[in-house]
Amino acid sequence: MLKAIGIVGSPRKGGNTEILVAHCLKAIAEEGIKTKLVSLAGKDIRGCIDCGYCFEHPGECSVKDDMQAVRAGMVAADVIIIGTPVYFGAATALVRGLMERAAFCERGGLAGKVGGPIVVARRAGQNFTFAEMNFWFYLNGITTPAGTYWNMAFGREKGEVAKDEEGMMTAWNFGKNCARVAKKLRE
Predict the structure, then answer these.
(1) Which end of the chain, C or N, has fewer beta carbons within 10 A?
(2) Per-residue pLDDT reduced to its tens digit, 83-107
């Protein structure tokens, strides 16, 4: 059975990013793919320290924190969705740490998967964040299908994102497209 992981990179549980990623995963689940939502809230995920350990020990990292378990879920999944709120025009430190270390540890091991970013912003910065995260998916050989627009929505207070009808529909369509592409790649 195909599997999808939706990673919520917000330090705030139950917020707009989690709502949007969960919505996307629901669309994927409707297509018969097993889904799992992982929140990074409260987790200790640090950035890369450029020690070179992963080059000598592929798939491992010298930094001992919660990243290893999340990375294992990414490796096991066929579809990877990473969502982040926008803080100061960029993804959260949790997301950035996870992305840089997962890429170094896996060096090519994520290629052939399907997925992409989901971004939530109050007002601005989402385009830069969306591009930043898309580069990561591209560099890791992950096929990124389109939604009906860029995978972003607006909201500040908890729950506000649900009022962004276009953003919610885009996340839904992105999920459906991820499921379709993952199924085609499996054939």
Answers:
(1) C
(2) 999 998 999 999 999 999 998 888 8
